[in-house]
Write a structure and sequence with these properties.
By secondary structure, the chain is α+β, with helices and mostly antiparallel strands. The protein is about 20% helix and about 40% strand. Strands 1, 2, 3, 4, 5, 6, 7, 8 and 9 form a nine-stranded mixed β-sheet that branches.
Amino acid sequence: MKEDGKYKLVEGDGITAAIVHRQKVLLVKRVNIPIISNPGIWTFIMGKRNKNETHIETAYREIQEEVRLGRVDLEPLVQMDEVLMFDAVRQNKMWKNSFFVFKTENPKVRINYENTHFRWAEISELEEEREYTNIFVNKKSALDRIKEAAEP
């Protein structure tokens, strides 16, 4: 592990996935229990990679598990092999994830037990952090990719 300012870099091997539908982005509100990363905040779909699973496979699995959108509903638009994430609640650790942006024509989602609510947010809400908590150490590059994917 290494220190980087106020964050301690910890081992992580997971994904973060943003889903775009007609210039809006899917946000999920994480269940508020302390054993999960970023409890109780509005954010994107996240999850850890299973052994022998590629990052794109992890993204498809996590999206299916958390919001019930299948591969046929998703068009992958962006893959960033490494983004730095941090825990917005505990604010002491950061880790590296692969970041994906998908497009969907299916706005109907069903959340699982990991989340309490979902909503389709405007890009401006992410930029202004209105009912959204930034979890990217470098927010600008992630939001730029989402904006590009949301362009008509």
